[in-house]
Design brief:
about 35% strand, 7-stranded mixed beta sheet, N-terminal domain of TfIIb, about 260 residues, 7 helices, Rossmann fold, alpha/beta
Length: about 260
């Protein structure tokens, strides 16, 4: 079993993580559509700082947010402390999930599935999902599509985006570089954040590394079937666009058909 926390440099700074990711909302309308059909608690696995958990809870749904990273959960608790919402925050590894609950809806978004780097990791995660899902319950998750463009990214620094830091007079120019291990289907990413002051001078630079596993569609179909999950829908995005060879992402909606 891979050590998830050993592959978590990107999550060591929950405040920076939110600055870079909190504005992402594309998945929320689709999750809310399924939540409206659900009774009982909804599980958000690898919930991070509650980017998706908190908005669903604010709509009146009972959420259980699970993550292995204490720092991320602490920030999620802080953000939700003064809100009139029902969220249970639980620190557990999603591969060894042990909750006294079964749910009609489980989701894991933000390409979390790619953090399970080995076949064993994937099997343990999906086994945990099956164990905590009601029969005919729904599991929703997303992952990046393993296209040639996605896998064969530049091994040299490539500009990605700029983030404005509201707390300081700096902006952050973000660069990435990567190498792909075809045998293990794992992409090795380095993210370079260059902190730039008002005069355009780089005053600091930080690097983080992460490894992400890619799964091909027919491979995923088999993995899910082994764990009693039937694919109901497969989209390239949260707008329910059909997946194609040119897609950059895959959104899976699965139904539990057996234990």
């Amino acid at each position: 079993m891979e050590n998830i926390k050993a592959n978590s440099e990107e999550y060591d700074d929950p405040i920076l993580y939110d600055k870079e990711n909190e504005s992402y909302r594309q998945d929320l309308p689709y999750l809310l559509k399924w939540a409206s059909k659900t009774e009982g608690p909804i599980l958000d696995l690898a919930c991070g700082t509650g980017r998706a958990t908190i908005p669903l809870a604010r709509k009146g749904y009972k959420l259980i947010g699970v993550d292995v990273h204490k720092g991320m959960l602490d920030e999620a608790k802080r953000k939700s402390a003064n809100l009139n919402v029902h969220i249970d925050w639980i620190e557990q590894d999603a591969r060894m999930l042990n909750l006294n609950v079964r749910s009609q809806l489980i989701f894991s978004v933000g390409n979390v599935f790619q953090h399970f780097l080995t076949n064993e990791d994937q099997d343990e995660f999906l086994s945990s999902v099956n164990k905590h899902l009601e029969l005919d319950g729904v599991f929703i998750f997303d992952t990046r599509f393993p296209s040639a463009d996605e896998l064969l990214q530049p091994e040299t620094e490539e500009y990605w985006r700029t983030i404005e830091d509201e707390d300081t007079p700096k902006k952050i120019d973000v660069y990435t570089k990567s190498t792909y291990d075809s045998l293990k289907q794992v992409q090795h990413y380095t993210t370079i954040r260059k902190y730039v002051d008002d005069e355009g001078t780089i005053v600091d630079e930080q690097r983080t590394n992460i490894r992400l596993r890619y799964v091909f569609p027919k491979e995923m179909e088999r993995i899910l079937s082994v764990h009693g999950l039937e694919i109901v829908h497969l989209f390239e995005d949260w707008n329910e666009t059909p997946v194609t060879n040119e897609s950059y992402g895959m959104v899976y909606v699965c139904k539990k058909i057996r234990d």
